[in-house]
Design goal:
The complex is a heterotrimer of chains A (about 150), B (about 650) and C (about 200).
Chain A: H1 3-12, H2 20-31, H3 36-46, H4 50-59, E1 71-76, H5 79-83, H6 86-97, E2 110-115, E3 127-129, E4 132-134, H7 139-147
Parallel strand pairs in A: 1-2
Antiparallel strand pairs in A: 1-3, 3-4
Helix pairs in contact in A: 1-3, 2-3, 6-7
Chain B: H1 7-20, E1 27-31, H2 34-38, H3 41-54, E2 62-66, E3 78-81, E4 85-87, H4 95-104, E5 114-115, E6 122-123, H5 130-133, H6 151-156, H7 161-169, H8 172-182, H9 194-203, E7 210-215, H10 224-231, H11 233-247, E8 251-256, H12 261-276, E9 292-297, H13 307-314, E10 338-342, H14 343-355, H15 357-361, E11 371-378, E12 384-389, H16 394-401, E13 411-416, E14 422-425, H17 437-440, E15 449-454, H18 459-473, H19 479-496, H20 504-518, H21 522-526, H22 529-548, E16 560-564, H23 574-578, E17 584-585, E18 593-594, H24 604-608, E19 616-620, H25 637-643
Parallel strand pairs in B: 1-2, 7-8, 7-10, 8-9, 11-15
Antiparallel strand pairs in B: 1-3, 3-4, 5-6, 11-12, 13-14, 13-15, 16-19, 17-18
Helix pairs in contact in B: 7-11, 7-14, 8-9, 8-11, 10-11, 10-12, 11-14, 18-19, 18-22, 19-20, 20-22
Chain C: E1 4-8, E2 11-15, H1 21-27, E3 51-56, E4 59-64, E5 75-77, H2 81-95, H3 102-111, H4 130-137, E6 144-147, E7 154-157, H5 159-165, H6 180-191
Parallel strand pairs in C: 1-5
Antiparallel strand pairs in C: 1-2, 3-4, 3-5, 6-7
Classes of the chains: A alpha+beta (about 150), B alpha/beta (about 650), C alpha+beta (about 200).
Chain lengths: ~150, ~650, ~200
Amino acid sequence: MEIDKIDQIIDKHNGEASSLLQIMLDIQSENSWLPKEALGRVSEKLNVPLNRIQHIATFYKAFSLVPKGRHKVHICVGTACHVRGATRILDTVEEATGIKPGETDLDMKFSLETVNCLGCCALGPVMEVNGKVHGKMSPVKTSQALKTYE
Amino acid sequence: MARLNTPEELLTFRQEILSRRDPNNPCISICAGAGCVASGADEVIEAFGREIEKQGLAATVTTKGTGCPGFCERGPVVVIYPEEICYLQVKAEDVPEIIEKTIKEKKVIDRLLFEDPATGEKAVKESDISFYKAQERTVLCNNIKIDSKSIDDYISLGGYSALAKALGGMSDLEVLEEVKKSNLRGRGGAGFPAGRKWEGSRNAPEPIKYVIVNADEGDPGAFMDRALLEGNPHSILEGLIIGGYAIASHEGYFYVRQEYPLAVENIHLAIKQAEAYGLLGENILGSGFDFKVVVHQGAGAFVCGESTALMTSLEGRAGEPRPKYVRSNIKGLWNRPSVLNNVETWANVPLIINKGADWFTSVGTDSSKGTKIFSLVGKITNTGLVEVPMGMSLRDIIYKIGGGIPEGKKFKAVQTGGPSGGCIPENLLDLQVGFDELTKAGSMMGSGGMIVMDEDTCMVDVARYFINFLTDESCGKCVPCREGLRQMHRILTNITRGKGKKGDIEILEELSETAVEASLCALGKSAPNPFLSTLKYFRDEYEAHINENRCPALSCKELIAFCIDPEKCTACGMCRKKCPVEAIDGEKKIIHIIDQEKCTRCGTCFEVCPAKFGAVTKISGEPVPDPVPEGERTITKKSRKESK
Amino acid sequence: MSDIQFEIDGIKVAAKEGMTVLDAARQAGIHIPTLCHHEKLEPFGGCRICIVEVEVKGWTKLVVSCVYPVEKNIIVRTRSEKVDRIRKTIIELLMAHAPDSPDLVTLAKEYGAQRDRYEKDPSFCIHCGLCVRYCAEVTKKNAIGFVDRGINKEISFVPQIAAIECNDCKECFPLCPTSYLQAAFVLTQSLSFPSSS
């Protein structure tokens, strides 16, 4: 990621240390992950020690320290979806993609995450791919849906 | 658009807006909340736009994408004003017909109406629908009427009149006294009296104070705050400014979870709009009161919903809670007096100022005043958001409003309060919702999540599920929570896998005591609640898992087996075709058999076996019957007649 | 500043405002066990083993003495059935990580804790935080920090900083009750330190 872009984001938040999370969120959404160099630059410009940035980057699950795949698969494991069988959907996705939540496959095709409640409980169990919500999933519908992504 | 410099100018402006709108002209509200959008609401909104253009009706017919009205099970929801006609599960293909029949010919389309499952009666108006009848939607009622991106819509419905009243006609102390008198208790879970919290901050000597909106709704299965944030952001903003005025704070924060991008967007927009109108910023409505608001996004941590962790996160740190020996309304954000309240709490404030504390206290019970929004989800017919007066029974909410359990299944428990709460069994369904009754039964009302469970839900698995959730969401700082949950999770997982041992329950109880007594924050202290409440009411399930390797709900994968009843199998082949791991052996007229070694217990065969045969059974705690010997697998008319 | 008078284990003590119950107890020579406490560092409140009973206006509650501020007329009990039971569980939970830590072994004897009560965990860090906090507050190098959260929380050196600062310092090493710190350092040194070219 270019240093200029990172500096722009930092300046947008007036270079304040209390906006550290907001700055990192902006970098994350711009780049889809947080490269080490970006974190180093943030540490330097905000005068915040790297160990604090390290803690924040791993404490908060919105951040990723590794590149993500082309298709971001989110399986809702909120209580309502869980009660409606989300575990089976997750099992199916793990089997079909070969990865577990938090991982990206070697082809950088799919990144899998579990999320807690997308607010679509009436459609549970729910799978979200690239922001699009697929509702009322079953193991069969799940494998079929995944096959449609290149 | 000119700044509104006085309360009178706001009044005039409101009248102007209303005069520009003919109340007899049709106005079509389409819910644009997350649930309806997932069911295709965006396409419906587009279709309406196109059709109205096509028909040349744009001058008299308006459409708007609105906030969530709560009936998520039947979305996309469309309400047509002024008649208040409510259409459910609307598809883009229905739009031309709606324009033709309902808008132009003023006729109602029967098939899109709500039909009462008990009586078969159709309901035309939104207020006639049984789902809504028993509700009291004081806070949520405007969601379906407001274009969530329009401040004018909010103002036209009386928005910001409470702020004008407070700044123009009440002293800050009077505002505080009114909120105290209303007995408004926090809607985020703890239920602390808001007025008392505000007073503590107001009286603290430090001059710089903060008011904070906790919009980090993290309880899985709860989306009440989301509906308010996305659908009616100004109502929360107005409450926040009034709160700032009451305690002499000039800086407010919204902490919104980043998993709600639409909420973040709408809050930012609402703030910009309010600033443009002079309802935020310097010298609001000419009162001399300055107030500004900053929005911070969460970054994916449930613990940041805890007030001290949220403040630590606002300071740009990892969200680790602080001990509450010094209350955060005295020393909170940056060690300054900080009033933190939940979204729903703030949304109630303008109503209290406008209609008065006496109005507010006329609803609810002695200790719990006002209404509460619940997200009624899980194994329930009418999934969605419901708002009811405090004091309504769980039974009424689940059956009168929720429509009971679908598919003829039996109710088992309702989980309230999220990961800090517990499960309430059938015999306690007459308990009233409120801050105190549910707590006495071992649960709590919490922020409003209400997850209904039926006979197919394993209560041991429910406990394991919540503990698992918390092992990851705990900040990890203190031993009783981090290590206690680590071991509780191990033991509960073992129990659900048939590896439970005698003595496990006692160890879990010991760990629970330590977490409850010695954890640093409310997350740890309430973490054992789901386990303790399921143990209290469903101990037999724990004992069955441990002593008999049996899951009474037939749910825990390692403890169940699927098998095909040779008497009922007609070799239709459905199960064999759909089995994702090809574990079923059989052909036409040959009794099908499941290979237990290959079977992954996904349950597909159980679901696809046609109901008239019902040949696939689920068993637990007993050995799988020996398969039919090879020679006897052929189905003939004779073999069926004999077995009859 | 006026003295704040209260009672610990039946003994009358006097403390200054701003002190914690633990400070006051130490001043009076009364022993309360600790694992994450250090005189040079801000109180952490992580291990919870310094938990005590405090009676205020007839109500008894459990508080963590290293962070609880002194209050007039409170009655503090450093030992009771409940306090001992909780301390025992804390020790047993930590011994699932570091059963041979001398501090834990001594505490186990005192409280009757069983070394093998809980299933062992591969990491022998007990998260007292002494290393992280010492490096942040005393030497101010921030060469080591926490990462992640919940049951996945760990300590982690910042390789770029540790490579420059640690070999000449190592002041945190003797603080570690389990020697996990030293092990983590050696591992980081061999795997992650930037190469000297």
